[in-house]
DNA sequence: CACTGTACTGGAACGGATTCCAGTACGAGA
DNA sequence: TCTCGTACTGGAATCCGTTCCAGTACAGTG
């Protein structure tokens, strides 16, 4: 807190208060905001038509590239358009055409770098196709998902990109059922529905590779601290871990789903280390969770990888300079966004809902090593 | 690349192909999409009026809470609304009222965590006030700023939040001048204009504190690797550094503006370390730059803080577990977003453009220590 | 009882474009 | 020369609410 927030008004732009004769055409006497529309009296298609001495329908045809237009007509209209600096009112077009060229993105929290990159990939691809993106953050409150779906629906978006906070929420399912627009799920799976397209990550592959790596190093007790059990990535990771250890009967797996938060990461770590069979390797299921895990490990002075090995999910840029370098199960979120956009655009083009699965891959790092000879000291027991 | 991307269609939802008698009311013979509008023939206000046996204007009054409505009228209308599941078409409302309840956010790159948090803060505040947020990424191409301002203008947004890629771009200034809607600059300063509100960070305070700290530790050669010279944060930081060292004639400051990229961070570090008077402390002006700096330092096996001290700007969550802990000039991006939203809402309420400055603060860390007795070896000279 | 005011309601214009339909004009073929 | 087709154009309906204006009915007052 170095500096107090400062509020100060700027001097108004106008220099002369109110005296100078306004060149505005016949301003209404005192009416403050009588005609609510026509903010800056921009020219409409009507004015263009009058100016060119043609019908509005002809102006519309010229502007929309209709074939039945003579060269003479085209040039007259274009001249009038130039002179008046006419720009069509998209609102009117939307109303008439019933399409807004807008899609809604429902996301838990855009400040999550993973989701931000997905949003970027999607926005760039959609904009290239002439669509704009409306963003809503559910701040990980499941009922807000439904609220936002309805809200975007009222705004008549043409499609929806959904990174839901909770796949099992009834309100969400209901809101989705009531939605006539095509939607794409982003790493989510609504088992009860098939109307939605989806972009998925192959979490199983990454987890399997990580487990094999850890087992190869000699680990026999592996824990996964996962996020919310109500979303696909968590389920997939848990399933994958359990399947992977089935192939190694000597390996014991523990799973701690909860939430994608630092708090859960810390709490689960504490629980695991204080437990009867503390793991020799932890897989952290997300950025925030990782922060919590690291915090708890640091507090206990548990060394990585000497005392415990660590793998994390979903890369963050700084991770590569972390000491020791973090073994990571990564994926390409930008591409996920781009693919989600492509899937949506395909639906606009008449395609059926589709599902696409993108790879994940495990990258080793110094944070993984052979487990210590003796289990790490289960210090920090409650008194 | 563990897994190939997989594309597979889902089975269509409908089980019976086309035989079953559609319960749809009097479907047009074969017409694929004749009436473009009325996607799902939802009831309009007209239908509600007919059903209730009243005029549309009365329905409108009831729904908009107009005072001149009898209780009888209200209940009749509400009943009809319920029965038909009527929802007003926001598009028509927007067109008529000339307000879209939508604001546009022009941002360089939403995947930058700083900007993502700003976006989150802004979106939450705006949504609470009934506004939706349209997001565009300029991917740090200055001309796209202008393009997007115009694009959002065409969509008739009520206001603009601007994190411009380049304050000096003529097209951007021009686009802004042609814009009738209120705008808020986010840590940007358009010296030629006073029409915009702005949320600023007090970068000077943070830099000054950092410099004092470094000088106190004994540093005499301090470098700032900054981002694009065309945005306010860079200018402010450079100015602050130069002013801060003026108070200490024995201190030599070097400045390397460039871009907010990892590449620039690395290149500038190389340049500085290979220079005649390599710095004993570096201030990295942003996340990406930091990554480049760290990369170069690691490549040269320059130790932090033994060989060189390091300060970074703009916190990232993982930074606190970085070894050594990073000294940071931080600020609260979420609040910046929230304040930007507040400033915009204030303008909608009739207020004049305003400027608010939020604090930054320096937090020390293990990455800063006394400079080495001898200047760090200027190894790595080009052959 | 007549008059004025109040409380409410209906009708219609409006916002700004799209698109169907009907028409005009002109060239070509019979 | 008449007819038909083609190429183009204008008019009007439409999308769906909002809001101004005029009007009705009834209560209150002189």
Automatic annotation (TrEMBL), chains A, B:
Gene Ontology molecular function: any one: transcription cis-regulatory region binding
Keyword hit for Cell membrane: no
Annotated Low complexity bias: 14-36
InterPro entries xrefs: HTH_LacI, LacI/GalR-like_sensor, Lambda_DNA-bd_dom_sf, Peripla_BP_I
Keywords linked to the UniProt accession: DNA-binding, Repressor, Transcription, Transcription regulation
Domain HTH lacI-type: 43-97
Any single Pfam family the record assigns to this protein: Peripla_BP_3
Region annotated Disordered, chain positions: 1-36
UniProt protein name: Transcriptional regulator, LacI family
Organism, scientific name: Actinacidiphila alni
Lineage: Bacteria, Bacillati, Actinomycetota, Actinomycetes, Kitasatosporales
